[in-house]
């Protein structure tokens, strides 16, 4: 992949979303920046409209030419294509990230993790920048949530991590999260009940053109384990899990339901 033009400048990174003196998050989370309760209730009766994947971003992710740094990736993914709105940029980021095999290191690495070039590399880039976070995604020390937040923020788009409970494959429909009279936190250890602890999950919220939206790259990056010419099975495992590594071939598809 060719380098970005010498006069190319990255956008200013969006600051970490913090509370102001009154205790409100910036950008604000209010009735104007979130969907109304009526809109949320309507989702229960309206079929989900699947969003289209950014096909050019996916082709870029799967191509043999690799960017040498975040500036090169941003230039080819967003700037050279003339993407202007926050929605266009985030769709490109989401599609690119969820089409990647995490084991593929996106940027060339310094000689050694503790060598002089590696030390200088870390000093050249903030620890939360894509130049640092994306290689961590590749070696299993960062996750999709951290990568998406980093790419959004360093594209000038406010983005935060949301933590909570998600009813994944470990949850059986109708299964109560708490047993009768069971406290939410253990009175002595403060631990969560086993089922709730197993359902801990995180996702992202990004502020696009003044309005907050939710994104889940972890579940959107569908890993299909191809075990033979005619047999495939979905592998809902972590990118670096033993199950994923044992598969003969992994094909990555982007499930835009989580966009």
Automatic annotation (TrEMBL):
SUPFAM superfamilies reported in the protein's UniProt record: Cysteine proteinases (SSF54001)
Domain Transglutaminase-like span(s) in chain numbering: 81-216
Pfam families listed in its UniProt record: Transglut_core
Region of interest (Disordered), residue spans: 1-34, 105-130
Protein name according to UniProt: Transglutaminase-like domain-containing protein
Lineage: Eukaryota, Metazoa, Spiralia, Lophotrochozoa, Platyhelminthes
